[in-house]
């Protein structure tokens, strides 16, 4: 099996780098300065134990690979706002023996949020979900920092919308020998909805930076809104206790000198990308709230403010907790 990692940032780079280290065929798909650095120096994977340089084949697009192989597994690790464009590009990629990737190859959504699998299923016949618990940072071209050990992350797998199969079982085994825990479950979306609730705090970290710790009541209310919405919609989700039971002592945060751990939304602001995934996190709760007549004022405001910060290229922590409370009234 060859793994094509579409989006070799924090999550994709960590997964691809570890798979390559354990002897599996990997292609990292990237663009711009990050792609140039990967091609010149390889992937620099930084942990509390030090820095490892990993040589991994790279590509900017399907065209650079020619016909895809029948044993390719596509792992989509771009931000949710980039999903549609990536699917349009890779879905029509030709596969050896005839046909295109959307019809012939499986695709794994290794992303935050719960909309990616549904969008992917419109294009690809076989879609898998991955609930990603992987504290990692990508701010410098060619460099991915992983902040956890002894296991680098917990990557819960399942077929979308439910079930499992032999491809997933094999993938899970490969991840397990690559410093991850990779349980295969029949209800992966329940796990992803549980992760969604935790990701509602990403917006606060992006807006407030270190001051987010002094505004814990806002995070609690954002999560409470999320739980009320999911309950009203009849959507099942995992609890923090379930996640902790799965995590155990296998994945513990390990500080990396000079690289503070930050959320994925904060990293997007720091890189000045101009877009963030908040519409698929806090925005998902806001959408469901409107559909099910459940007020979500905290998530509504967080979505709007983070989008504004991204458009205006503001850095993380540009707002004070007092200002945010004032806007909430």
What's this entry about, in short?
The chain has 329 residues and is of the alpha/beta class. The chain contains 14 helices and 14 strands. The protein folds into 2 domains: 2-186, NAD(P)-binding Rossmann-like Domain (Rossmann fold, 3-Layer(aba) Sandwich), CATH 3.40.50.720; 192-328, N-(1-d-carboxylethyl)-l-norvaline Dehydrogenase, domain 2, CATH 1.10.1040.
Question: Can you describe this structure?
Answer:
There is one protein chain. The chain is α/β, with parallel strands linked by helices and 329 residues long. The chain folds into two domains: 2-186, Rossmann fold, CATH 3.40.50.720; 192-328, N-(1-d-carboxylethyl)-l-norvaline Dehydrogenase, domain 2, CATH 1.10.1040. It is 42% helix and 18% strand. The chain has 14 helices and 14 strands. It has helices spanning 10-21, 32-41, 83-91, 101-104, 116-121, 166-176, 188-199, 202-208, 216-233, 240-247, 264-271, 282-291, 297-311, 321-328, and strands at 2-6, 25-29, 43-47, 50-54, 58-59, 72-76, 107-109, 127-133, 136-137, 143-146, 148-150, 153-159, 180-181, 251-253. The strands form three sheets. It has an eight-stranded mixed sheet. Strands 4-3-10-9 form a four-stranded mixed sheet. A two-stranded antiparallel sheet has the order 11-14. Strand 9 (136-137) and strand 10 form a beta hairpin. Helix 8 (202-208) crosses helix 13 and helix 9 packs across helix 12 (282-291). It is globular. It starts with a strand and ends with a helix.
């Amino acid at each position: 099996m060859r793994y094509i990692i579409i989006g070799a940032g924090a999550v994709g780079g960590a997964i691809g780098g570890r798979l390559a280290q354990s002897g599996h065929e990997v292609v990292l798909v990237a663009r711009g300065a990050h792609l140039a650095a990967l091609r010149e120096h390889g992937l620099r994977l930084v942990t509390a134990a030090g820095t490892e340089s990993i040589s991994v084949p790279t590509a900017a697009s399907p065209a650079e690979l020619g016909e895809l192989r029948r044993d390719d597994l596509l792992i989509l690790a771009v931000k949710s706002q980039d999903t549609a464009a990536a699917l349009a590009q890779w879905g029509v990629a030709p596969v050896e023996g005839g046909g295109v990737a959307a019809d012939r190859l499986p695709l794994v959504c290794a992303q935050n949020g719960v909309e990616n699998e549904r969008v992917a299923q419109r294009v690809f016949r076989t879609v898998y979900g991955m609930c990603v618990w992987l504290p990692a940072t990508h701010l410098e071209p060619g460099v991915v920092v992983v902040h956890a050990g002894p296991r680098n992350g917990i990557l819960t797998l399942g077929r979308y919308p439910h079930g499992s199969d032999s491809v997933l079982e094999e993938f899970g085994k490969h991840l397990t020998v690559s410093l991850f825990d990779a349980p295969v479950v029949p209800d992966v979306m329940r796990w992803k909805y549980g992760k969604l609730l935790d990701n509602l705090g990403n917006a606060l970290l992006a807006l407030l930076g270190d001051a987010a710790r002094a505004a814990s009541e806002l995070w609690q209310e954002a999560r409470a809104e999320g739980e009320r919405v999911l309950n009203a919609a009849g959507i099942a989700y995992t609890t923090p206790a379930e996640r902790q039971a799965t995590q155990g002592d296998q994945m513990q945060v390990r500080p990396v000198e000079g690289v503070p751990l930050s959320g994925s939304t904060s990293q997007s602001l720091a890189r000045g990308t101009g877009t963030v995934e908040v519409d698929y996190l806090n925005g998902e709760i806001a959408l469901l709230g409107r559909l099910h007549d459940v007020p979500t004022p905290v998530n509504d405001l967080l979505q709007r403010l983070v989008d504004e910060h991204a458009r205006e290229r503001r850095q993380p922590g540009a707002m004070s907790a007092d200002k945010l409370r004032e806007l909430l009234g």
